Each structure stands twice: as C-alpha cells, then as structure tokens.
Amino acid sequence: MSLKTRIIPCLDVAGGRVVKGVNFVDLVDAGDPVEAAMAYDAAGADELTFLDITASHEGRDTIFEVVARTAEHCFMPVTVGGGVRSIDDIRKLLLAGADKVAINSAAVSDPDFIARAADKFGNQCIVVSVDAKQRLDAKVGGDNRSEWEIYTHGGRKPTGIDAVEFAARMVERGAGELLVTSMDRDGTKSGFDLKLTRAIADSVEVPVIASGGVGTLQDLVDGVTEGHASAVLAASIFHFGTFTIPQAKAYMAERGIAMRMA
Amino acid sequence: MTTVAIIDYGAGNLRSAANAFERVAAERGQSDVITVTADPDVVRKADRIMLPGVGAFADCMAGLEAVPGMIDLLDERVIRGGTPFLGVCVGMQLLASEGREKVVTKGLGWIPGAVEKIAPSDRGLKIPHMGWNTIFPARPHVLLDGIETGENGLHAYFVHSYHLKTDNPSDLVATTNYGGALTACVGRDNIFGTQFHPEKSQALGLKLIENFLGWAP
Question: Min CA distance, A207 vs chain B (Å)?
C-alpha cells in the first residue's frame, strides 16, 4: 500500500478574502486566498479546502472567482465548502475549477440532495461535512446512540441526529468522503476528538478527513494512527506559521505514516 | 505549434484540464492552441484530442453520445486517422469495451477490457482510492519519459472506485499499488489513458502533458 496520508490546509473565506488571518512569511497580502493557496501548493500541501463563510447572498459569487483564480495557478485538488445547497451551486463550483464540494446543512435538511448530487457528478466529488458535538445527555453505553450529535449552520444549530448513524447514511446516499469536525475541539488546539473520528472512520467504507482541534504535530499523527483518518485538516497551525507543511510531513513520516514528500 | 481539442460533453473538470494544458503550452513557448469544445469541426481540425471525465461511467457515456456526431468523429480521427489521444479518469475508462459501474454500459471499445470495481486485498482499505500514489510502468512508454516512477518516484492524484482491466496485457502501461495492482495507465498506438488526474498531479502531471503535446506516435 503506497497511498499517502493527505495533509489538507483549510482557508476560511468571506467575501473573497481570507478571514481568521493568515500569517505566512512571504505573502504580500495575507488576506488574498489565491496567494495563500499558491503558498500551500508550493509547500507541498496534498489538497486545499476553501470554506466559504460568507453570510450574504451577494458575497457568494466571489468564491467562484477565488476558485477560478486558484485553479489557474495550483495543480492540486481543491474542495469548496460552505453554503452549497443546489445542483447548480455544485456545477458552478466545478466549472470554476473545484474538484470536490463539501456539503453540510443541505445534507441534513434534504438527504436526497446527496444522492442526486452523487448521481450527477459522481461520488468522488461529494464530501459530506459531519459537524459533531458531544451530546449533553450522552449515556455512554447506556443507549443505542453514539456519544455525538450533528450540528448545522456552521455549528450553531443542534439537530438531535446521531453523528455516526448520519455518517453511514450519507455514505449510502453517495458521499465519497466525510469531513468529520469536532465542534468541541474546533479552535481549542487540544487535538482531534479521536474517539469520534475513529467511530465514524471504522463504520464507513469511504475515506474520513479528521478536523477540528489540531495544536501539535503529534495531533496529526494521532488522527491517523488512533483516529483512523485517511487525511488530516488543519487551519491555524499552518496559517500562523507555527509549523510548515514539510515539517508536518517529516514528523508524520518519522512516525511511520506514509507521506508524499515534496 | 500544436492544437488540442479538450472535448466538452458535459462531464468533467474542463477548466482544470484546460488550465494545466495552457500552463504547459505557455512554458513550451510554441503558441500551442488549447480549445475546450463540443464542436465537431474544431475536433476534426485538432492535432491532438483530450477526453476528460468525472462522474459515473454510464452518465459520461450518455453525455458523449448526446453530442451529435462526436463518437463517429472520434473513431474517424483517432482510430482511422491516428491522431494522438489522451483520456483521463472516466475519459480513459470509456475506452473499454464495457463499464460495470452500477449497470453494464457499452464503452468505445478501443481498449478491450471491462471497467470493474476495485477490490483491495486488505479489507481495511478505503474506497474510493483517493489521494496520492506512485506508479509502476508495466512497459516503457514515451509519455512517461522523464517521470520518476516506482516506490520512490513522483506521485499522481487518484480518485476512483473502478478501474479498467485490460484484456490484452500489452495495453497496460502502468499500475499503481492499492491492496494489489490497479490500472494507472493504458495505451496502444496513438491512444493513451490515465486513471489519475494529470491536471491535478503537480510535477508528474505537467510532465505527462508536456510529453503528450510533443508526442508523435
């Protein structure tokens, strides 16, 4: 087996600009997502994810332009998530140069949307975002549900839907990959929710991307070895230059994980 | 100077494919012309033809059939005319005799064989086979010239759940390893196909496209 574990930097974009800030050394304009994408491309990132967190409808169109400009310069796979609700949204993103789309709220409100999208564009380009949070009423081993429920609308809206069950159902409908984010860990730098990642990764056939909570390079290793993830996604540790992509790859490779070295 | 027609039949990441070809063309500095087109007249005049493809086999085949005259024209230009041809991902799988994705669908039949679901020997391996993997030549081919292959070679970006099993061993050009050998490249005469995405495979992909633009089979 020589398929490599992927490292995926994630850029939050609003109105065509990177938000949350990016602090690379050589960027002229740290707010330009295309410039940031090119820096990651040059550093050997395995894929790139744009998360469009634009709230207004008017701002939405800028993401197409960002994707189009990125695809002109970066010959690597690009995923776009955030606000993907219709077949037409997907078509426009793919035509702009995206390779995959990540779908969250629309997958919960209309699971058949995933089936229609997968039939139309192929399973390989449909990523379902599973934003999960530990249930307050979780009785560990005490009921039939897992410990986590899913949230929509950028983690603001609880649904009462079981995360592990939801993940399996999305794969049945045609999701080709799952982006599993722990809402509890997101932004905390305390590491992935490994139990959550593993519970989902072990119950589905498709690859799982671990997300939410990376603070150290060991967290990335743990996501793979203990979380059973096929790819690891991180934002701030790379944006702020805490670690570079080559450092992360070298660290993971030293610990026995097959990586694509630049 | 060469002209390339990238066939638009409603399937695939056309923009990405065109971007990668345009980048290589600019670096060659020979005023190559890259056109994304569904127009048979443009395809008829092109020096090279590229068939992309993303999605399910049956949908892609139906999309190609829906472009009036396109399949006959491809037959005329590629099979009888010897025009250099590159198929990518499902655009490569369509060269097979038949696809067995969900339903059995007749393919173009240029590379005898069937497109079958991958079945890694290790049950723990995920499907789709998604990500970066190395390739192993089954035989020499000029489109792989200058590309480091083997375990420590360059990586190609794959994303697929099915692969083309060729009937003729000589049509298999390269494999990749994912719980057993999977078809990575096929080729015969002026026809070449890659399961991976050259337009998403950084150095390896750009080199392969450069080789294709200069290919004189």
Answer: 6
Percent of chain B clearing pLDDT 90 (strictly above): 88
Q: Does domain A6-254 have CATH number 3.20.20.70?
A: yes
What's the gap in Å between the CA of B171 and the closest CA on chain A?
23
Place of tokens 């997101």: A186
Q: Does residue A12 have an active-site annotation?
A: yes
Closest CA to A122 of B128, B111, B72, B190: B128
How far apart are alpha carbons A173 and A51 in whole angstroms? 23
* DSSP three-state, residue B89: coil
Under DSSP, is residue A189 helix (H, G, I), strand (E, B) or coil?
coil
Stretch B58-69: mean pLDDT: 92
Predicted-complex ipTM score = 0.92
Catalytic position from the list B60, B89, B129, B163: B89
Q: Do B130 and A124 touch (CB under 8 A)?
A: yes
Q: In what order do the strands lie in the sheet with B181-188?
A: B33-37, B3-7, B48-51, B85-88, B191-194, B181-188, B172-177, B129-137, B155-160
- Nearest by Cα to A2 from A258, A262, A261, A205: A258
Does A260 contact B132 at a Cβ distance shorter than 8 Å?
Answer: yes
At B61, the pLDDT band (50, 70, 90 cuts) reads very high
pLDDT (0 to 100) of residue A2: 86
> Residue ranges of the domains in chain A?
6-254
The mean of the pLDDT values for chain B is 95
Clarify whether B60 is annotated catalytic.
no
Alpha-carbon span B134 to B206, nearest angstrom: 15
CATH of domain B3-213: 3.40.50.880
DSSP 8-class letter at A230: S
Tokens describing residue A138: 């979780």
> In this structure, is the dihedral angle defined by the CA atoms of residues A230, B59, B166 and B123, taken in order, positive or negative?
positive
B178/A3 Cβ within 8 A: yes
Q: Give residue A156's pLDDT band: very low, low, confident or very high (50, 70, 90).
A: confident
Asked whether residue A139 carries a pLDDT value surpassing 80, the answer given is no
Instruction: Give the A:B interface size as CB pairs under 8 Å.
Output: 105
CA distances to A47, A86, B57 from A100, in Å: 10, 14, 18
- Give the active site residue among B101, B155, B197, B210: B197
Q: Which of B9, B132, B207 to mutate to test the interface with A (most CBs of A within 10 A)?
A: B132
Closest-approach residue (CA) in chain A for B89: A124
Asked if A119's CB is within 8 angstroms of B132's CB, the reply is: no
CA distance B201 to B210: 13
Neighbouring CB atoms inside 10 A of A153's CB total 12
Which chain B residue has its CA at the smallest distance from A76's CA? B200
